């Protein structure tokens, strides 16, 4: 994790969410070879986050509503937009998974395009647990945001404003219950999690009964 003194001086923090007060603080930045408006617009299209933002699987919102819901790494977060200065600043707070967070974005025009800085602070018991939020994992995740934004912004700038989503993330299929990889499932009919054995045809059941029937007839 970074020290609070490593934060960008132009980032605005709401009360209670400064890096000095946080349990976790990370920063990432990139130079995007595209205008600030292009990068800013891509980031504010929140309904398309699942196509490129790491670990985001679902978003319920309009084009940057003041509140929206994000499913991140299997957890639901309620997001509140706290700062929105078109093409320059963006910030939102989130509540979910036992933590509170605030993510700030700063877009600055430079000679090569746009200098993008994002900083993220997290408060809560989960942020203090090394197993729940490792520093290496958090740094890598925060670095992927501007890296993906850079790729898409430069692609959109070259194509006249259109951008192509990332390739869908492949997930291995989970084998059915009661099976192992490389083996066929056992015969039978699955009902919920209970596997019922196959019923024998009536003809076979009758054959199994014949010996007992003959023996009873002799007695």
Walk me through the structure.
The chain is of the alpha+beta class. It has a single domain (about 5-160), classed as 2-Layer Sandwich (Alpha-D-Glucose-1,6-Bisphosphate, Chain A, domain 4). Helix content is about 25%, strand content about 30%. It has helices at about 35-45, 125-130, 135-160, 200-219; strands at about 25-30, 55-60, 65-70, 75-85, 90-95, 100-110, 115-125, 190, 195. The radius of gyration is 28 Å and the shape is globular. Mean pLDDT is about 75; it is low at about 130-135, about 165-185, about 190-195 and about 210-219.
Structure keywords:
219 residues; alpha+beta; Alpha-D-Glucose-1,6-Bisphosphate, Chain A, domain 4; seven-stranded antiparallel beta sheet; 4 helices; globular; disordered C terminus
